[in-house]
Write a structure and sequence with these properties.
- The chain has helices at 2-22, 26-31, 33-38, 45-52, 58-67, 117-131, 137-149, 156-163, 169-186, 190-200, 206-212, 245-254, 264-273, 291-303, 313-321, 334-384, 391-408, 412-437, 446-468, 495-517, 519-529, 531-536, 541-564, 575-588, 593-613, 618-635, 646-649; strands spanning 71-74, 80-85, 90-94, 101-106, 110-112, 218-223, 232-236, 279-280, 283-284, 324-329, 484-486, 492-494.
- The chain is of the alpha+beta class.
- It folds into five domains: 2-120, no CATH class; 132-216; 218-329, no CATH class; 390-472 and 493-572, no CATH class; 574-650, no CATH class.
- The strands form four sheets. It has a five-stranded antiparallel β-sheet.
- Helix 17 (391-408) runs antiparallel to helix 18 and helix 25 packs across helix 26.
């Protein structure tokens, strides 16, 4: 009995020892000790794969320690440990398997393993399978990002295994999407890949197209017969518009199926090698100064058997006739390439439609900006007939007013709320002052008015430079206006642009209310249509003109605050919008709010359309737009919506 007990105890100890060895990481490290110590990217992969596939929980800690350059090898026995710096030049070593400190050693007795960036990248890829199920959400997110940067087929199964137990709903959706993308590129089951492609065919994201495009990449090849073991995309016909005979023969040369053509360099080299007594092929060297002479000499050498003969056209035709030319997919499965091509066609159609939507949103956004900038000019130009070249400077003054307000009110939301009425007040007052001091003395004298307002424009720009300097000043948008409204990877629009669009609608409604529901609006319409008749009815045209000019200037100030949220606030800010403002007013119809809206829409869509057709040259786009508008005015000199009354008779 005692013997049986001792024998059983020995067997148990042996099993425990064997299990302990199986659960130990150190034997795996020792098996690959040489390549780990060498730390070469070319040879390290087997060691990393063995560690990652061991299934041991300590493998993750070991790989993270290695990547952090905290792994040390003890020179005396070649064992690997985690090391932390102690006192002086000593290091405290910790066993990977037990997690226990084994002692402190001098640096001279140890070798630190410092993996380079390439090895750290490979370690990072190996760590992904552990990090996908890590309790730390940040590590799981980092693992997904690592897979997205460097996808591999080996990561597909660990990713799939981590999806079911993922506690975070958002991250679970990310994993499911990434699993579909990896399935498209790396799954060995053709049916699974086709299913994944069909599921993702409605997705417009760039990563989907990046997964599908490699599947339909083709390569031109040539052979004596069309092979049956490749995925043929198309059979090519030499001499066609997309595949010339020259390209076909060059392909044969590249595949070593035919001899190369004799080039001019080959002829020169052969002639230089075969000079005899000042002659080559019986022709004096001095006469070999033309291509025809050199070709004749080379032909003589070829006839003598000294050099290879020219390849004739008949030989080229025979070679082309005896070979087949075709394109093959890099993806071997025809089912996968067919599904990928169909999906890409559907995606391309949807991308085109969404690009049209995106261009439309950009055009509407630009039109709202031009409308805000031009609405004040439409009022003054339409009611008073004044060409105010300083209108852009009122926009600039509004933007600077917003900047000054933000210096005193750091809360960006509150500062913008305060800046809008403040900008209106400042530019309204400046507009009234300008009308009273300058404009009213120049009515019915358009040239003098234009020159005077142009001079005021220059003076206001210089004044702004003297006060604020030449550097651009920031007008910071509130935090809730940062970012963009993203519909998909194709369509997006910034929240600032949306806010400006809403502001333009508000001012459209406000201006319509003023014009239709208030006494000032009634008087403005009366003066616009017939100033003499309005005066005879007791309306003071001078007062109406003053308030109208102030109102138009005030609205320009508010437009300046809105524009300053995304444009650089400088003394030259108005110059960027004065031309478009005048074009908006003239094209839309002078003195008509609906005309200004129509003009802004037309110019906004026209400019974006021209920029889309010629995106590399915005200056050319501006030029084409101005030419189009000049032509348009020739046919509709009063604009889209012509004004009745005084403007109709001017």
């Amino acid at each position: 009995m005692v013997r049986l007990f001792l024998a059983g105890l020995a067997i148990l100890c042996a099993c425990l020892t064997a299990n302990a060895q199986e659960a130990s990481l150190q034997p795996i490290l020792q098996e690959h000790q040489e390549i780990i110590a060498k730390s070469s990217r070319k040879t390290i992969k087997p060691a990393i794969d063995a560690i990652a596939s061991s299934g041991l929980p300590q493998a993750q800690v070991m790989l993270e320690t290695w990547a952090a350059k905290d792994m040390w090898m003890r020179k005396s026995d070649g064992l690997f440990f985690s090391g932390q710096k102690g006192e002086g030049r000593s290091y405290e070593l910790t066993d990977f398997d037990t997690g226990e400190v084994i002692g402190t050693f001098e640096k001279s007795d140890l070798k630190q393993l410092k993996p380079n960036s390439g090895i750290r990248s490979m370690i990072g890829t190996a760590l992904v399978q552990f990090q996908l199920t890590d309790p730390d959400r940040a590590k799981r997110q980092a693992a997904l990002q690592s897979i997205q940067r460097d996808p591999e087929g080996a990561l597909l199964e660990p990713l799939r295994a981590s999806i079911e137990d993922e506690p975070d709903a958002e991250m679970k959706a990310q994993k499911q999407r990434l699993e579909r993308l990896l399935t498209i590129g790396y799954d060995e089951d053709t049916a699974a890949r086709v299913t994944a492609i069909e599921e993702m065919s409605g997705d417009l994201s760039v990563d989907v197209r990046a997964a599908l495009n490699p599947l339909v990449v083709t390569k031109r090849q040539a052979a004596a017969e069309l092979p049956t073991d490749v995925n043929v995309a198309a059979v090519l016909d030499p001499g066609a518009s997309t595949f010339s005979e020259t390209e076909a023969y060059d392909l044969l040369i590249a595949n070593d199926l035919v001899p190369a053509l004799t080039s001019s360099e080959d002829i020169r080299a052969a002639l230089a090698t075969n000079i005899e007594v000042g002659r080559v092929g019986g022709i004096p060297v001095a006469q070999l100064n033309t291509d025809a002479a050199r070709a004749k000499a080379y032909a003589a050498l070829a006839e003598a058997g000294t050099v290879p003969a020219f390849i004739t056209q008949a030989q080229i035709d025979a070679a082309l006739d005896s070979h087949v030319f075709f394109e093959t997919y890099s993806e071997p499965s025809p089912e996968v390439t067919a599904a990928a091509e169909k999906a890409l066609e559907q995606i391309e159609l949807k991308v085109g439609l969404n690009q049209t939507l995106d261009l439309t949103l950009d055009a509407i956004s630009l039109a709202s900006i031009y409308f805000l900038a031009a609405i004040g000019l439409a009022i003054t130009f339409g009611v008073m007939g004044v060409i105010n070249m300083a209108h852009g400077e009122f926009i600039m003054m509004g933007a600077y007013t917003g900047y000054v307000v933000q210096q005193f009110i750091p809360d960006h939301t509150l500062s913008i709320i305060v800046a809008i009425p403040m900008a209106f007040a400042v530019t309204f007052a400046m507009g009234v002052a300008m009308e009273r001091l300058v404009i009213r003395w120049l009515y019915a004298r358009p040239l003098e008015t234009l020159l005077a307002t142009f001079g005021i424009s220059i003076a206001l720009q210089q004044l702004a430079k003297n006060i604020f300097g030449t550097q651009a000043r920031p007008l910071t948008a509130p935090g809730w206006l940062n970012g963009a409204w993203v519909l998909n990877d194709v369509v997006s629009i910034s929240y600032i642009r949306i806010a400006i669009f809403v502001l333009a609608l508000i001012f459209l409604a406000l201006f319509l209310y003023i014009m239709k529901r208030t006494r000032l609006g009634l008087e403005m319409r009366a003066v616009t249509q017939n100033p003499r008749m309005a005066a005879s009815m007791g309306i003071n045209p001078g007062r109406v003109n003053m308030l109208t000019f102030g109102l138009g200037s005030g609205i320009a100030g508010i437009a300046g605050v809105a524009i300053g949220l995304f444009a650089k606030v400088t003394s030259d800010l108005g110059n960027d919008y004065i031309v478009q403002s005048f074009m908006t007013v003239v094209v839309g119809g002078v003195g008509n709010i609906w005309g200004a809206l129509a003009g802004a829409g037309m110019i906004g869509f026209l400019q974006k359309g021209i920029e889309w057709m010629n995106p590399s040259n915005t200056l050319a786009a501006q030029t084409y737009m101005i030419i189009f508008i000049i032509i348009f005015i020739q046919f509709r000199p009063r604009g889209i919506i012509a004004l009745k009354g005084r403007a109709a008779g001017d």
